[in-house]
Specification:
Low-confidence stretches: none
Number of helices: 10
Order of helices and strands: EHHEEEHHEEHHEEHEEEEEHHEEH
Structural class: alpha+beta
Helix content: 25-40%
Radius of gyration: 24 Å
Distance between the termini: 74 Å
Largest sheet: 11 strands, mixed
Strand content: 25-35%
Number of strands: 15
Shape: elongated
């Protein structure tokens, strides 16, 4: 017989979901069969698998060691999750941290999450920091992986939200999905914009080029987009804008602003080639000047209630200052 005691980062999920993490190689039919036959129990009683677990619950496996090990398979560890040589987050890259969440200031050039198995992203750097500082243990990693909750394009800088606990991951992911968490960006665009605006359109994606197209009228597979912006300052090259992302689509800010004649400076996909060349020569910038600058949290119930109404900001990168200082 093997017994596990549900840890805090395992609580709050269905029992069958946790069992699938402990018995990764087992088909669901086997897990449900063992539950029906009381070969797997919850607090000494028969369970169906749809119970929501609480910290301290006892799950017992009345299976032979050979059967358990066969279906458990290799358990995740820091060595498996982190490629060798991953550099952990620097203190200056951590904007805020508590037991449930961590907010990071992603530099331009880093992936939010890896696209290929060999990639090293901010997600791996966050894990390296948490493991290295003892904030998550090898045992916890076997059934729970802290993770980045939102994504930024590789060359967009700014706030990344990470869930350190299951409650933090679930709650921040929920707010991002229902858009109750407001995300504000800053960018420098070509031309002078004098008034705040709320603009809408329709966005469609070309998978072959990984580019999107914005139109005023709906089309096949096009999705409605809404973007709000207001000017903050003016410089020789254009306008510093604050953007509220009302909807969140691939490359929405970059393509939407380009569609109204105000592309983001330095943007290689949607920008103006002549302007980008000048920005490269004068300021050594070869990527979009787009920064996730601020997040505002709504009223929150439950474990993360202490974060209700909080606002967090990421300072602008030095590249912005180089451009906006020229009047």
């Amino acid at each position: 017989m093997k017994e596990i005691i549900v840890r805090e980062n395992e609580a709050g999920q269905r029992m069958d979901k946790l069992l699938s993490k402990y018995l990764k190689e087992a088909p669901k039919s086997f897990i449900y069969k063992m539950l029906r036959k009381k070969n797997i129990t919850l607090d000494g009683k028969k369970a169906s698998g749809n119970e929501i677990l609480k910290t301290g619950n006892s799950i017992r496996f009345y299976l032979s060691d050979e059967t358990y090990e066969k279906f458990a398979g290799p358990q995740d560890s820091a060595k498996q999750l982190l490629p060798s040589g991953v550099k952990p987050l620097k203190a200056a890259e951590i904007l805020y941290e508590d037991e449930h969440i961590i907010l990071m200031n992603k530099p331009a050039g880093w992936l939010s999450q890896k696209a290929e198995p060999k990639d090293v992203s901010m997600n791996e750097r966050m894990l390296a920091y948490l493991v290295g500082s003892g904030k998550i243990t090898e045992a916890e990693l076997s059934t729970f992986h802290p993770s980045v909750c939102n994504r930024l394009d590789r060359n967009t800088s700014g706030i990344l939200i990470g869930g350190k606990s299951l409650a933090g991951l679930q709650e921040m992911s929920r707010m991002l999905k229902d858009r109750s968490l407001h995300k504000y960006y800053q960018c420098i665009v070509k031309g002078k914009i004098t008034e705040a605006q709320r603009i809408s359109g329709y966005l469609s994606k070309d998978e072959t080029t990984n580019k999107v197209r914005v139109t005023k009228e709906p089309g096949k597979d096009a999705k409605k987009i809404v973007t709000e912006y207001r000017p903050l300052a003016y410089c020789k090259e254009g306008t510093l804008l604050e953007i509220l992302l009302v909807t969140g689509r691939t490359h929405q800010i970059r393509a939407h602003l380009a569609s109204i004649g105000h592309p983001i400076l330095g943007d290689p996909k949607y920008g103006d080639a002549k302007t980008n060349q000048r920005i490269l020569q004068n300021h050594r910038i070869r990527h979009q000047t787009l920064h996730a600058a601020r997040v505002e949290l709504p009223v929150i119930d439950g474990k993360l209630g202490y974060l209700s109404g909080k606002c967090f900001e990421a300072p602008l990168p030095e590249t912005f200052a180089r451009i906006t200082s020229e009047k």
